[in-house]
Amino acid sequence: MTIVYDDTSEDTGSVPIRRIKFTINGKKKIAEVEPRLLLSHLIRRGLELTGTHMGCDTTNCGACTVLVDGKPVKSCTMLAVQVDGHEISTVEGLAGQSELHPLQEGFKQEHGLQCGFCTPGMMMAAKALLDENPSPTEDEVRWALSGNLCRCTGYQNIVKSVLWAAEKLRGSAE
Amino acid sequence: MYPSRFRYEAPRSLDEAVSLLREGGDDAKVLAGGQSLVPLMKLRFASPELIVDINNLPGLDYEKQDADGTIRIGALRRHASLERSELLKSRQPVMAAAAPLIADPIVRNRGTLVGSLCHADPQGDWASVVTALGGQVVAFGPGGRRTIPITGFVSGPFQNALAPDEIAIEAVIPAPKGTPAGGYLKLERRVGDFATVGVAVALEMSGGTVIRAGIALTGVGGSTISAGEAAQALTGGPLSAQSIAQAADLAAGAANPRTDHRGSAEYKRHMVKTFVARILSRADGGATVAERAA
Asked: Which of A111, A167, B46, B190 could disulfide-link B40, Cβ–Cβ 3.0 to 4.6 Å?
């Protein structure tokens, strides 16, 4: 995988490049990256997985949330080199071959999105919550999503969507 | 936004990390959770030439208790682990109470307590909590380990007492001699914002008497403020309406807030007084208070 950068450096020294190996949505990858490349850029530009959105680029909004080793992180605030040897999940990894993930279905059923920009981050944060706590209360859902901003919905339907997905997941586990 | 170009090293041992830092001198930075450093680098407020990523160092992700009750928290222990820590819940409830108030849940998966102390942001929550508890930081450098009291470790806004070739490897919280009580109250505009005002109170109670008190303030001065006189006013007596009011006044007097987009200086000072009184009025009997207010 190659990412082409603008050459803005004034010095003529060599560009430090590191080779990293990682897994994304179950697929093993090798990349050569400059250490200053952010994880969000590796995902969007390097892997062309543009489901991960960049909203604020300042660690506030959570639109770029992905899972690293199962835990949600803001991918704009982690260096790509740091995922060497680790496992990443993005929104593209949620759905199966022919069916939506219950979270995706829940957002559809409960109208959990309007513009949809924050939705991938919301879903990944919610996925981590439901992996850890399959029966969250409404309050627990709200706290788990408190690092993700939505400017359209007022959150009400997002919370409903996650609770819908939790119920569906519990049903299918029985 | 991209950080400016830097060399990246991810050492596998502390000795290797220290020798890299020695090589990098003032242009080297340690990367732990990165939840403050990476944003600063993206905004180009920080442009280190060498990043020493300590995330691969073994044996720094822990919280543990010594035989005498001292609590030690390793440099790679994330806020999210502290939030779920049974040890802190039972032994240092003020810390357990403060942990869920740090940043937001996603940031808490990466950020570390020791990193927060090193960053020494006047609006950082942990520095106040650790100051109120009378904690210390253990630094590791070419000469071995040294222990630095938190009040000396945070040496100014965004400044700490580490030498360029030292790494903070552990936070140390002394064992309480009485029943711990107190809490952390944080006024914020929304979850994840910096504290408009934060107040940490750590008491140790014995038979209704305060045998030790620490009070520290977040976001109301150029650095973390230790309200020593307010704590002194509580020590040696029971919590009474009078001692609570006196401590709250003294703490408000120790604050040195500035008017900004989060509120006026008068408002912030008033909130310090309110928060100190609120924590103390609920602390009798060993209760711990933690709340976000908005």
From this structure: B46
- Give the domain extent around B45: 7-53
3-state secondary structure chain B: CCCCCCEEECCCCHHHHHHHHHHHHHHEEEECCCCCHHHHHHCCCCCCCEEEECCCCCCCCCEEECCCCCEEEECCCEHHHHHCCHHHHHHCHHHHHHHHHCCCHHHHCCCEHHHHHHHCCCCCHHHHHHHHCCCEEEEEECCEEEEEEHHHHEEECCEECCCCCCEEEEEEECCCCCEEEEEEEEECCCCCCCCCEEEEEEEEEECCEEEEEEEEEECCCCCCEECHHHHHHHCCCCCCHHHHHHHHHHHHHHCCCCCECCECHHHHHHHHHHHHHHHHHHHCCCCEEEEEEC
- Give a yes or no: residue A138 inside a domain: yes
The CATH number that applies at residue B197 is 3.30.390.50
CA distance A170 to chain B (A): 24
Render pLDDT for A106-115 as a digit per residue (tens, 0 to 9). 999 999 999 9
**pLDDT-based confidence at residue A2 (cuts at 50, 70, 90):** low
- Residue A133 touches partner B, C-beta closer than 8 Å: no
What CATH number does residue A136 fall under? 1.10.150.120
Say yes or no for a CB contact (<8 Å) between A59 and B35. yes
A11: in domain: no
Residue A10 lies in a domain: no
Q: Domain of A49?
A: 18-93
A121 and A160 assigned to the same domain: yes
The beta-carbon neighbor of B106 closest among A16, A35, A65 is A65
Q: Is residue B28 less than 8 Å (CB to CB) from chain A? A: no
End-of-domain residue from the set B136, B154, B173: B173
List the single residue in A with minimal CA-CA distance to B8: A35
ipTM for the assembly: 0.94
Q: Do A78 and B107 touch (CB under 8 A)?
A: no
Residue B5 in contact with partner chain A when CB distance is under 8 A: yes
pLDDT category of residue A172 using cuts at 50, 70 and 90? confident
> Which chain B residues touch A84 with a CB distance below 8 Å?
10
B40 neighbourhood in chain A, CB within 8 Å:
none
Q: Output the domain CATH number for residue B153.
A: 3.30.465.10
Q: Are residues A75 and A26 in the same domain?
A: yes
